[in-house]
Structure prediction request, 212 residues.
Amino acid sequence: MRLRNVKGSREVIAVNEYVVRDEQTMKGRWHELFGNDNPIYIEVGMGKGRFIMDMARLHPDINYVGIEKFSSVLIRAIEKQEIEKLPNLYFIRMEAEYLENVFDKGEVSYIYLNFSDPWPKDRHAKRRLTSVQFLERYKNILSAGGGVTFKTDNRPLFDFTVEQADEAGWRKESVTYDLHHSEYAEGNVMTEYEERFSSMGNPICRIVYFPE
Ligand code: SAM
Prediction:
């Protein structure tokens, strides 16, 4: 993602009511914030938040937490949430490597990874959000039966993801190399990147998998 510093974004994030600060103090207590016992779904690397906002609007009985490491991107999601004020959606500005400090064992019911950064160099493979290192982190916060959905148009990253799922012993429920023309197309909620890349004619790959 091409990043532009957005003036004032840090200041907004420091006080906005939809951004959880001191997120480590929320570990095991997320239901207090939402004020109910609904399941918690997270999107890691949510970008400007289109997908997670659409999901939160469609599924009011699910609580959503969007995670994004850059203030200049997160600010765009905050601006939209400031207008919509969806009660089942909060954001955290954080690096996903530290997810286990923020969510307790079994506290998260589902994880979405959409168009994650590819980190193409082999020596950076551990930084890919679908590496075995990240799968171990997800396993440690997912509840029984919880899983991960990953979408991308980047075929080498997708092939890596499928290999890592096998290496980690995860059960693959469905794998498609052309989501929009597959049996899984119906009900698919598009992300910002998905819209952009599919309009260029790129097929979208998707895997749904579980740490069992
Ligand atoms: N998910 C959105 C979509 O599909 O439109 C955005 C995709 S964009 C390519 C990837 C986003 O993930 C960027 O905003 C980036 O800052 C964020 N990101 C990448 N690695 C991350 C990490 N380790 N922790 C938190 N956010 C991350």
Summary: Residues 1, 45-47, 67-70, 73, 95-96, 114-117, 191-194 surround S-adenosylmethionine (CB under 6 Å). The chain has two domains: 1-96, 105-212. Helices lie at 9-15, 30-34, 50-58, 71-84, 132-141, 155-167, 192-199. The chain is about 30% helix and 20% strand.
